[in-house]
From TrEMBL:
Organism: Paenibacillus contaminans
Domain of life: Bacteria
Pfam families in alphabetical order: ABC_tran
Protein name: Carnitine transport ATP-binding protein OpuCA
EC primary class: translocase
Domain (ABC transporter) ranges: 3-242
Catalytic activity, reaction form: a quaternary ammonium(out) + ATP + H2O = a quaternary ammonium(in) + ADP + phosphate + H(+)
């Protein structure tokens, strides 16, 4: 189902939690709602779910305006950070519980045969989450990752048109999170269900999302694919939030970037910077002189921190080139950068 949100706003007292947010989401997309704490992510999710009433704005599910519909009428599935399974019910019963509202909507013929219908659907879902063998267990007999899969199955049971996930993996350790991310991506691809998930974790969003919505202080900073966000950030906030960015004062002083407006705010990414000795940097004529401040071992690479005049930069260096000692004089070359001035953004390249 396609989702459209128009000029959505919500205040709590005098605090503007969501401020004129508009976006559209295509059918079957997996979309990450991302941003710093307090940015309004959960509030938007709750308004989509019908758990919170907007002050203004419109919500469309497909062609249908849903502002006045109850959460049940909206046909959504919801998974929270804490699995919220019923402790006294088995895995099977927890999933079957998700079907109760659905049963009421089914034609009489199927309802009369309710037990068989439920059995078939629960078994399908158990297979989908890969937990068919654990149907008779209770939640306290499951790992965190398994519990969260059951919560997914319960949310999916009534075949919702939209799946809303609020930090679904936040309570898991790093390894389980990684597994569940991959699993979620696969499952959404298979089911083709439009899904919106809230996360703090940019790495998580970049890895699995088709699109990301970046929110800050109740406003939408940018919507786009992870690649777009990374290569074409539209605001300094997005540039700093997605991936590693280094702010460069006075970019116009760097060779190749003389055209940069002097009052623009400029950023580079570490992989756009080359730092090396005279032998290693071929285009010395375009480079500036700097000095190494620190060299840290990062497994496959060295992280080199260097200073050029007052600007601190860092870049990665292949491990086989060996470390650079602090105070070594180096050549520093910028290959790309991007700059922002007011509402304008400029991707820049050193050609
Ligand atoms: P987090 O990542 O910390 O969960 P978030 O981006 O999801 O943050 P929200 O939970 O949407 O942010 O909250 C946005 C702002 O609105 C916060 O400053 C929060 O304190 C405030 N807020 C949320 N719900 C209420 C409420 N019921 N009453 C008053 N203020 C609220």
């Amino acid at each position: 189902m396609q989702i459209a949100v128009r000029q959505l706003s919500k205040r709590f007292g005098s605090f503007q939690a969501v401020d004129g947010v508009s976006f559209e989401i295509g059918e079957g997309k997996l979309v990450g709602l991302l941003g710093p704490s307090g940015g309004g992510k959960t509030t938007i999710l709750r308004m989509l779910a019908g758990l919170e009433e907007p002050d203004s704005g419109e919500l469309f599910f497909g062609d249908r305006k849903v502002n006045r519909l109850s959460p049940q009428e909206r046909e959504i599935g919801f998974v929270f950070q804490h699995y919220a399974l019923f402790q006294h019910m088995t895995v099977y019963e927890n999933i079957a519980f998700g079907l109760q509202t659905k049963m009421k909507q089914l034609p009489d013929a199927i309802r009369r045969n309710g037990k068989a219908y439920i059995d078939q659907r629960v078994n399908e879902l158990l297979a989908l989450i890969g937990l068919s063998d654990l149907a008779a267990r209770f939640p306290h007999q499951l790992s965190g990752g398994q519990k969260q899969r059951v919560a997914f199955a319960r949310a999916l049971a009534p075949e919702p048109k939209l799946l809303l996930l609020d930090e679904p993996f936040a309570a898991m350790d790093a390894k389980v999170r990684r597994e569940l991310r991959g699993w979620l991506r696969e499952m959404i691809d298979r089911l083709g269900i439009t899904t919106i998930f809230v996360t703090h974790d940019q790495e998580e969003a970049v890895e699995v999302a088709d699109e990301m919505l970046i929110l800050q202080q109740g406003r939408l900073e940018q919507q786009g694919s992870p690649v777009d966000m990374y290569t074409k950030p539209r605001t300094p906030f997005v540039a700093g939030f997605i991936g590693e960015s280094i702010r460069v004062e006075g970019l116009s002083r760097w060779k190749g970037f003389e055209e940069t407006p002097p009052d623009a705010e400029a950023f580079v990414r570490p992989e756009w910077i080359e730092i090396g000795t005279a032998k290693e940097v071929p285009l010395k004529s375009a480079a500036r002189l700097g000095v190494v401040e620190n060299c840290l071992f990062r497994g496959s690479q060295w992280l080199i921190e260097a200073k050029v005049d007052d600007t601190k930069l860092f870049a990665y260096r292949p491990v086989e080139l060996g470390p650079l000692q602090p105070n070594t004089a180096v050549f520093v070359l910028l290959h790309r950068a991007y700059a922002f001035r007011g509402q304008e953004s400029f991707p820049l390249e050193n050609t």
